[in-house]
Amino acid sequence: MIEKVAFGLVTAVALGGALGVVAARNVFVSALWLVLSFIGVAGLYALLGADFLAATQVLIYVGAISVLILFAIMLTSNVMSDERANNRQAFLAFIVASSVVAALGVLGYRTDWPVTWGDGATIVRVEAAAAGGAVGASAPVTATDGAAGQPAGNTDGVNRDENVVQLGTALLGEHLLSFEVISLVLLVALIGAIVIARD
Amino acid sequence: MLHALPLAETSLSGWLSGLISGHALLPGEAPLAWAVVIASILKATVIILIVQIGMLYATWGERKVIGRMQDRLGPNRVGLFGLAQPFADMIKMLTKEDITPTAAHKWVYNLGAILVVPPAVIGFAVVALDRHLIAADLSVGALFFFAIGSTSVMPIFMAGWGSRNKYALLGAMRAVAQVVSYEIPQVLSIVGVLLLAGTLSMNGLVISQGPLGDAFPGVWYVFLQPIGFIIFLLATTAEIERTPFDIPEAESEIIAGYHTEYAGIKFGLFYLALYFVTISASAVGAILFLGGWQPPFGFMAGLPGWVSMTAKTLVLVFVFMWLRGTLPRLRVDQLMAFAWKVLVPISLVNLMVTGFLVKLVAGWPPLGVFGAFAVANVAMVLLLLWLVAGWRRRSGARQMSFDRPRDIAAGAAVRGGAA
């Protein structure tokens, strides 16, 4: 019940923010709506039990990327004007965007996601915490929920989550190549930015 | 957050759920779930009240401390020792006229003032005043705190842009330039601590610094990570916009920066948020580097945890006031050059050395671990001094004085090294 209410709220924030981005008249206000949408996505991660991803989403998307977007907007010449940012290609943009959403939706629906349902200990702990049978039954409690590797009776009062450990092991183990390639791409972008700035 | 509740939270929720089901206030299958919601609201109320009182007396304390440092008395008219001064200020702010400039973008202008408070308050959710006095001991507590802190620049942007005033806009631009400069060294400076503790949970971080810790000698991380601590202090001074880094609201240059156009309680909200962040950043500094709620000495073992925690937090708050009373303001380009050319490289070296040492000293006796870290830290400081000396010699002692003002908006700060 509570999970569903929270999911509804968070989804409304994410979708409402996205709607605001395309509906706002001013490009600065659009960017502010985008921030709201990012926060909604962070809420979705938190609801799925991915606390680390939720915090990272806020840190990177709200705290860094949105700041860069707003910074770039502020450096434009007519930042103070109330000029309408939209043009006549709204319908075309709508078609492109909805086909991308449709393609992603079909892909997401057809993919056989490796969802591991919570083992007994996890569900017991979730029920002890929230006592809502709906939580254990409806939410896809993943194996990263923390109870997997340790006894459910969290005796010393410290909340140790295996989530971060698993993520780190996966990044530097199974996905090491993609991790290194991404860092290389970022390094190239950094050097490129410095070269352009020095010219 | 329902899936991971610490002991204190479940006991409060358990008591509340008994209350709810006993009185049949809420029909339905999940009284405990509602109890969690009610308990969270109660805890949020308590946090806001405590922090509010703390903030009021932080303003009083700051005016007294700065007054003494400048050979003045500070507030002493309203009440004993001026103790009622914060309440007089509060009444003044609440009764002032509420002005919205005609040119301002109404929604963004007003929302900017309202939204500046929540990021400052939410951070307190993961501050552990005592082992069980913590609203939410998240498994990613430390990361949560800095993630929330990074959002606090958004309302500043909204205030600066929504005011439609060139000084406000300049202040917002300076705030952003400051954020991108301090945020990276700030986060890098605490990664060393996180490597040592092996956890992101606030209670876990505190426990790992005491006799209960299993991985490393039970000493505060300030002794193992002194360089990280100093970088954290400098970056946090920039975060809370205090002299020498009060560049976004430098009143002698751009009036009051992004809150130039705000009056009355809307200005009060900006003031409030800055003090909230000062207190919460000091508290997190105490948790990360000064042992949190653990008593400072062995013979004080009977002392309640919140007493040690409050004392350590107040010491750090005093350090920030002390810095403000002592140092003049830097220029924007000086802060950026300092953060990018000095703090970021040092914190990266510190991180690499710490990561190497954590692997090297695993299984050593406590004294050996401490000695290894002491040697490494002294070596890093000597290396830094040698580098700075060489740098000053090559550039004829001109580089560190940064004596050429540059336009940061044109991106000239990046070009500075080549010119």
Could you explain the architecture of this structure?
The complex is a heterodimer of chains A (199) and B (419). Helix content of chain A is 69%, strand content 0%. Chain A has 8 helices and no strands. In chain A, helix 1 packs antiparallel against helix 2 and helix 2 (27-47) runs antiparallel to helix 3 (51-74). With 199 residues, chain A is mainly α. Chain B is an all-alpha fold and 419 residues long. Chain B has helices spanning 7-23, 31-69, 85-95, 106-115, 117-122, 141-151, 153-162, 166-197, 202-207, 221-224, 226-239, 251-254, 264-289, 305-326, 332-360, 366-394, 412-415. In chain B, helix 1 packs across helix 2 (31-69) and helix 7 (153-162) packs antiparallel against helix 8 (166-197). The longest helix of chain B has 39 residues, at 31-69. The interface between A and B is large, with 53 and 60 residues.
State mean pLDDT of chain A (0 to 100 scale): 75
| Secondary structure: number of strands of chain B | 0
The coarse overall form of chain A would be globular
The total beta strand count of chain A reads 0
Largest beta-sheet characterization of chain B: none
Q: Using only CA atoms, what is the Rg of chain B?
A: 23 Å
> Largest sheet of chain A at a glance?
none
The run of helices and strands of chain A is HHHHHHHH
Largest interface: A-B, 53 and 60 residues
Lay out the secondary structure:
The complex is a heterodimer of chains A (199) and B (419).
Chain A: H1 2-23, H2 27-47, H3 51-74, H4 90-110, H5 120-130, H6 133-138, H7 163-172, H8 176-198
Helix pairs in contact in A: 1-2, 2-3
Chain B: H1 7-23, H2 31-69, H3 85-95, H4 106-115, H5 117-122, H6 141-151, H7 153-162, H8 166-197, H9 202-207, H10 221-224, H11 226-239, H12 251-254, H13 264-289, H14 305-326, H15 332-360, H16 366-394, H17 412-415
In short:
The complex is a heterodimer of chains A (199) and B (419). Chain A is mainly alpha-helical and 199 residues long. Chain A contains eight helices and no strands.
